[in-house]
Design goal:
By secondary structure, the chain is mostly helical. It has five helices and no strands. It has one domain.
């Protein structure tokens, strides 16, 4: 796994998803939290709801991740954490 650290984000994600049971969400979590890939933006049902509520963004997790990168740039992963925390504190209604 540590060899992934030297790869670019897209290549690292494709490689990590080759591991049985690892999909986009878990792969992005691993890249964000342990591989310093700060552009990784894990998308689950909560992030889909949050991004839909704040930005009107809907679609597949990959589409949401790509749009988040356009909004937040190379530090999308940090923004994801703040958004999740903000929503978990009841700051967004009806999600």
């Amino acid at each position: 796994l540590y060899s992934l650290k030297g790869l670019n984000y897209d290549t690292a994600l494709e490689e990590i998803k080759k591991i049985k049971g690892v999909g986009d969400k878990v792969g992005n979590c691993i890249l964000l939290f342990s591989m310093n890939k700060y552009e990784a933006f894990p998308v689950d049902i909560w992030m889909k709801r949050i991004m839909g509520k704040i930005y009107g963004i809907k679609g597949k997790p990959e589409d949401i991740r790509k749009k988040s990168e356009k909004i937040y740039g190379k530090y999308s992963g940090f923004a994801q954490q703040y958004l999740f925390y903000y929503a978990s504190q009841g700051k967004l209604k009806d999600i």
